[in-house]
Every structure is written in structure tokens, then in C-alpha cells.
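Repro:
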Amino acid sequence: QVQLVESGGGLAQPGGSLRLSCAASGFTFSSHAMSWARQAPGKGLEWVSGISNDSSDIYYIDSVKGRFTVSRDNAKNTLYLQMNSLKPEDTALYYCFVPTWGQGTQVTVSS
């Protein structure tokens, strides 16, 4: 079964850095896009960053662009999130996850 184990969190000062890791097992890591999400105290879940299976496509939420860097090592089945210039608003519980997709449903807007 899919298992994801996050590590690397802790206490950092504003302006400081942390590097999160996510060790994956139970599926073919190199075949799947991966993402990071976070949940701040008292708030809902927020998607933070995504990376394609071959690292060719990378995405960030606007609030972390230029400060966070997502990467992966497919040989080690590990996802990373380098967080620099940390701000108090980055305080949250951080999760890694494997995005899953449905088959899609067509929406067409036409008169």
C-alpha cells in the first residue's frame, strides 16, 4: 500500500530555512507526480507545490514562489521541499501526497 513519511519539520526563526523530506513506498514513485500541501492552525488544507514525475513541470502557490523549492530523487523514492526565507504565515502541518486523477469530464461553454 502507499506509504508516505514526512520528516524535517521543526522550529525555525523568521527568515530561516528548513528542508522537508517525504519518503515514499508501496508504489512506483518515478511514475507519479507528487505534491505538498499544508494546514495552518484553524485553517483548511492548502496546496503548496507540485512536481511532475520527471521534474519537468513544477508549480507553486503564489505565496511561496521564490522562497520554496520542490525537488525529487526518483532513485531514492524521496520528495523534498526546501523552504527558505520562512515567514510566520508558513506555520502549518505539511503533508506530501500523490495526486490522483479521474477520467475527466468535458465542459463546453457555447451558445
